[in-house]
């Protein structure tokens, strides 16, 4: 009945947040204690809530219960489906106050804002390199660990970055998306097109 009355008799002693149910307070306390009683049997990663563990398990099982009605793409989390739907509607509710650029997701706006502030909050403990985005730090860390999680299904070659794998795949598919506007010659890599363009300008590259 407290959901109707709004009564919240259970108070957190750390931050004074109040809850209507004792179980909710217990879950909340884990944010202060760091307790993570739910462990994944596949990779030993631990979670503070059972629901979070269940969602994580989909990364192992491949389960994607949320389907986009527009394009049938499937997602493991409802929030990811909601974000994806905005690619169909074109909705971009998050606007940058500096340059008025708009974004469909709040996280993308936050990442974008760092291009204005120059903020680089993510530091590599190995070489002290700093990065604006956590994803960039994770990619960089592979240069230290040697981890290559992206594997070519055709030849088994492995790569540290997915964009490098995509470029490599063109050696199998023959795709050449970069075209020279001068002579229509096509290339699989942008760097190769740039090198080729010097032949039209009469420039000699210094090696």
From TrEMBL:
Pfam families: zf-C2H2 (PF00096), zf-H2C2_2 (PF13465). Keywords: Metal-binding, Nucleus, Repeat, Zinc, Zinc-finger. GO terms for molecular function: zinc ion binding. PROSITE patterns: ZINC_FINGER_C2H2_1, ZINC_FINGER_C2H2_2. Residues 10-37, 38-65, 66-93, 94-121, 122-149, 150-177, 178-205 form the C2H2-type domain. InterPro entries: Snail/Krueppel_Znf (IPR050527), Znf_C2H2_sf (IPR036236), Znf_C2H2_type (IPR013087). It comes from the Eukaryota. This is C2H2-type domain-containing protein. It comes from Branchiostoma floridae (Florida lancelet).
């Amino acid at each position: 009945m407290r959901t109707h009355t709004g009564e919240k008799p259970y108070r957190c002693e750390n931050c004074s947040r109040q809850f209507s149910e004792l179980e909710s307070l217990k879950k909340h306390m884990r944010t202060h204690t760091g307790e993570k009683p739910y462990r994944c049997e596949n990779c030993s990663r631990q979670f503070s809530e059972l629901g979070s563990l269940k969602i994580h398990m989909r990364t192992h099982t491949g389960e994607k219960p949320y389907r986009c009605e527009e394009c049938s793409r499937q997602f493991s989390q409802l929030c990811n489906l909601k974000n994806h739907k905005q690619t169909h509607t074109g909705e971009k509710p998050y606007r940058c106050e500096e340059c008025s650029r708009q974004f469909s997701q709040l996280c993308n706006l936050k990442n974008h804002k760092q291009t204005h502030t120059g903020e680089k909050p993510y530091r590599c403990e190995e070489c002290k390199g700093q990065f604006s985005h956590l994803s960039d730090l994770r990619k960089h860390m592979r240069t230290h660990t040697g981890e290559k999680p992206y594997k070519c299904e055709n030849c088994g070659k492995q790569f540290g970055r997915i964009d490098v794998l995509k470029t490599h795949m063109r050696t199998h598919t023959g795709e050449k998306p970069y075209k020279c506007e001068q002579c229509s010659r096509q290339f699989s890599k942008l760097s190769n097109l740039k090198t080729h363009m010097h032949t039209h300008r009469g420039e000699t590259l210094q090696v």
